[in-house]
Predict the structure.
Amino acid sequence: METTEALIIVDMQKVAFTVPRYNAENVILRIAALAEKFREHNKKVIFIQHNGVVDNYCFPNTKEWEIVDELPVHPEDFVVEKLANDSFYKTNLQELLTKHGIEKLYFTGCASDYCVDTTIKSALSKDYDITVVSDCHTTADRPHCSAKTLIDFHNWLWADMTQTKYKIKVIPASEIHF
């Protein structure tokens, strides 16, 4: 029987960690543990991998394009390559989710204020049941805002968004149980 839940790991690539990211080491460790938990319960793990060819960086099959070493991609995992902030935009993500009957998505990754946020909002408009893992996404300081403030703000924003078919849940990794 196919699972109806998947862990989405957005852009946890080496290029993303060439600049300091808030609490990066702990975020990576929590995502790795969560991925193992999903695999142990026969749930899907989907890595989103940014292809930066449009912006002339992060080219496929280069060191910077690789997923960070602490998050090994297992043979049963899926990898979706994207060209834009939205992981659904001109990718096979929605087709993959439909094919495997996946309706509930758990979001993690980098950067909270870019690709993670855009993909969550896109998934919301597609009526997926969304849980954001509040301590499993990160970003960098921005010119007018600290990374910690951005993360806190986005956790609040996602939890407060008007629901479509489902209301977005925002919870820490320790509260995810199967």
